């Protein structure tokens, strides 16, 4: 059985089920007491079986309960109410929603045919039974199936957005790995060669050996500084380029994004770029955002970046990413704050200019 969507959609399916049993219930209650309780028993068994199935129970329980209503409910009620036709219509409507593959449509058609057979033996009017069953089934499919289809599309869209965010993170890790490789690969090779040469010359040419050892030490220090720069700020950061990249990623994810930037360079640009990447990831992973505004401004010896969007589910600063931003900014005298007002979430990052 396919996974059913969230609670609101389940409520819609419950309402459709109750509506389909309204006419059979009226017909059963109109019967004399001698036969009324058999019909009530059949409807009660059917309702319980449906509730069990909707909560993940085996589908065969619902099939057995539906078949059991044929001898219990079908003979009950006046001919003009076509009692079991409504139950057959409910079975025809819910079969495509609960089953998968070609069986869903075979079960739907079979329920309509069974309604006609029951109508023939009960009132010799199989056509009316089949028309009612087909109409009720089509109504249930339209009112329950379309929301399920849209919910599936939304789920796929969100999964695609999360996959895109994970891909962006993976690409950034690969880029950083390439940067570190470029930084260290050549340096370490040269250091190894000079260290080997210094060892060979130690006995025959002490002065040159010392010079080579000193050069190896200088190269090692330079490589260490470059690695520190890379880890700290992923080398030189061009904030406008980062803003444009984030805008493109959000736009491709279906989020309308506007950017207002200022002329910021150096350490403030590095800190804002790192915070911007985390903010973009949060928008993609933790929100149903339809729009996002990014504003960078310089005022009072401070650079302030404000990221505002709608639909964020996790505005807390306790997440690992935002906690890391807060700790990093605290080390350079900056700060970060998050606020949610209604459906609007605002992240503000402030660093010294």
Would you kindly provide a written description of the structure presented here, covering whatever features stand out?
It is built from eleven helices and five strands. The longest helix has 76 residues. The chain starts with 6 loop residues before the first helix and ends with a strand. By secondary structure, it is an alpha+beta fold. A five-stranded mixed sheet has the order 1-2-3-5-4.
List the helices and strands and how they pair.
Elements: H1 7-20, H2 22-29, H3 33-54, H4 59-73, H5 83-98, H6 103-123, H7 126-201, H8 206-233, H9 239-252, E1 256-260, H10 266-285, E2 291-299, E3 302-310, H11 320-331, E4 335-341, E5 344-352
Parallel strand pairs: 1-2
Antiparallel strand pairs: 2-3, 3-5, 4-5
Helix pairs in contact: 1-7, 2-3, 2-5, 3-4, 4-5, 5-6, 5-7, 6-7, 7-8, 9-10, 10-11
């Amino acid at each position: 059985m396919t996974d059913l969507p969230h609670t609101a959609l389940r409520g819609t399916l419950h309402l459709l089920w109750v509506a389909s049993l309204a006419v059979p219930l009226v017909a059963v209650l109109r019967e004399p007491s001698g036969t009324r309780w058999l019909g009530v028993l059949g409807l009660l068994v059917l309702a319980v079986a449906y509730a069990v199935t909707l909560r993940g129970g085996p589908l065969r329980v619902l099939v057995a309960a539906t078949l059991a209503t044929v001898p219990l409910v079908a003979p009950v009620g006046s001919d003009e109410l076509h009692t079991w036709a409504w139950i057959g219509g409910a079975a025809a409507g819910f079969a495509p929603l609960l089953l998968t593959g070609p069986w869903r449509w075979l079960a739907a058609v079979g329920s309509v045919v069974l309604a006609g057979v029951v109508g023939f033996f009960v009132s010799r009017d199989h056509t009316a039974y089949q028309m009612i069953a087909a109409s009720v089934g089509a109504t249930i499919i339209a009112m329950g199936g379309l929301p399920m289809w849209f919910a599936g599309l939304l789920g796929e869209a969100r999964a695609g957005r999360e996959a895109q965010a994970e891909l962006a993170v993976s690409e950034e890790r690969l880029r950083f790995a390439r940067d570190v490789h470029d930084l260290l690969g050549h340096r370490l090779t040269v250091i190894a060669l000079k260290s080997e040469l210094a060892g060979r010359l130690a006995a025959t040419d002490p002065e040159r050996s010392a010079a080579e050892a000193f050069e190896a030490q200088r190269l090692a220090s330079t490589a260490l500084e470059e690695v520190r720069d890379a880890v700290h700020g992923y080398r030189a950061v061009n904030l406008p380029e980062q803003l444009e990249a984030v805008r493109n990623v959000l736009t491709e994810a279906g989020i309308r994004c506007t950017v207002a930037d200022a002329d910021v360079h150096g350490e403030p640009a590095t800190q804002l770029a790192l915070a911007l990447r985390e903010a973009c990831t949060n928008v993609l992973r933790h929100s149903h955002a339809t729009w996002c505004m990014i504003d960078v401004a310089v005022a009072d010896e401070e650079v302030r970046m404000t990221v505002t969007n709608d639909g964020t589910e996790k505005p807390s600063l306790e997440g690992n990413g935002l906690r890391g931003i807060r700790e990093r900014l605290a080390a350079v005298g900056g700060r970060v704050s998050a606020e949610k007002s209604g459906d609007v979430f605002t992240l503000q990052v402030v660093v010294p200019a």
